[in-house]
User: Fold this.
Amino acid sequence: MPLVTSTEMFKKAYQGGYAIGAFNVNNMETIQGIVEAAKEEKSPVILQVSAGARKYANPVYLKKLVEAAVETTDLPIVLHLDHGDSFEICKDCIDMGFTSVMIDASSHSLEENIKITKNVVDYAHDRGVVVEAELGRLAGIEDDVKVHADDAQYTDPAEVYEFVSRTNVDSLAIAIGTSHGAFKFKGEAKLRFDILEKIGKLLPNFPIVLHGASSVPQNLVEVINKYGGNMPGAKGVPEDMLRKAASMAVCKINIDSDIRMAITATIRKYFSENPSHFDPRQYLGPARLAVKEIVAHKIRNVLGSSNQI
Assistant:
């Protein structure tokens, strides 16, 4: 099976009241862990490449690794560009074979966001590629995306219909209280489900995306801190809130920090317990298994996408 777009995935997810997991990838072990979990759970999956991943691993390497995942699992896999901040970056990824791209022009005015997004959509659709855009601004830090809490903006439902109809975009990331990184909430976690509900009514059957949706499992925070880490106050989005969002209009949920934490907790613990080991395969193997375990948990209990292929 070749790489696919998210079009049919999202149709089924909307109708079925579940979401597709979009997991950020940076290296071979992360990709292997994610796709092994998806294969066991019989779940479609989106593998996405951020600006940081492109700098770290080179998108050509990542694309070949994702193609290997397709070949060895026969899963329906989307290769997605996460947070492309210009037409040029989106074009480069489309030209090299990505099946989905995100153009994030949310830092611009509404009119400029529409203009930039429409240019990407026109180019992508002519080549069979789907496009995600963003309306509203999420707080937090992820690679090159840095938005201070004071600059975050909830998505205005009144602008959504105009934005989607004028751009012809395929899916839309909205801001309802999630944020990038591992430090999402200082107090009680809260998501604006009222905004999500309004958008769902304005755009029936249209796929909505949640960014910044890692849950920052406290057991992983404890392991990281126990073995030399320093993550005081790390807090994510409660999983029951994400499951509720997936039962509504949300068809794609982005998860990155939880995978990073699973890898880091495993490797920190391994180094502490095996100080004489120096072969990367010795600690990357358990880290890969940790990725598989947390992704399988997300698919089963948060996304609800098990047994959907």
